[in-house]
Amino acid sequence: MRKFFTSLFAFFISWFAGGLVALGLAIATDAQEEYILVFMASALVTIVVTIVFFVAQFFSNAPAIIDWLALCTIVLFVLVGLGLIGWTFSQPVDKRQWGSDLPIVAGLVLPNLATVLVHWLFVRWRVGRGLMNAQVNA
């Protein structure tokens, strides 16, 4: 039951953190309808990360697996961000739209990084506390 509530609270906290970052970017870049995609992606990433970290809590060496998953997802989003930036710069000069392309790239990467980091910090903290309680009680 502890793992379920850990994942549930991590879901809400990380969704809130990712949403705040997305909202801050939307306000800073005067975004319009295109940021609907950013908020949808943030919600989807939060759901997927919650499921992945929930399953990782059931392994015997959960802290190591959770750390590894966090590192892999962070690297994944950094690579996605670099790929999107590279794709933006690879467009012909006359078709580049700097004002609309780079804010959406930042909006697709930064809120998701915040979501993963907050989720990892909360789950890792709770799993670490559970291990300490189990060792003390044993």
Count of runs of 4 or more consecutive helical residues = 4
Give the biggest beta sheet: none
What is the succession of H and E elements?
A: HHHH
What class would the helix/strand composition place it in? Answer: mainly alpha
Radius of gyration: 18 Å
Helical proportion? Answer: over 70%
How many angstroms does the end-to-end distance come to? 20 Å
**Count of distinct strands:** 0
Shape: elongated
What does this 3D model show about the protein?
The protein is an all-alpha fold. The chain contains 4 helices and no strands. The chain has helices at about 1-30, 35-55, 60-90, 100-135. Helix 1 packs antiparallel against helix 2 and helix 1 (about 1-30) packs antiparallel against helix 4. It is elongated, with a radius of gyration of 18 Å.
Fold blueprint:
Elements: H1 2-28, H2 35-56, H3 62-90, H4 98-137
Helix pairs in contact: 1-2, 1-4, 2-4, 3-4
Which key terms come to mind for this protein?
mainly alpha; 138 residues; 86% helix; elongated; single chain
In brief, what are we looking at here?
This protein has 138 residues and is mostly helical. Helices cover 86% and strands 0% of the residues.
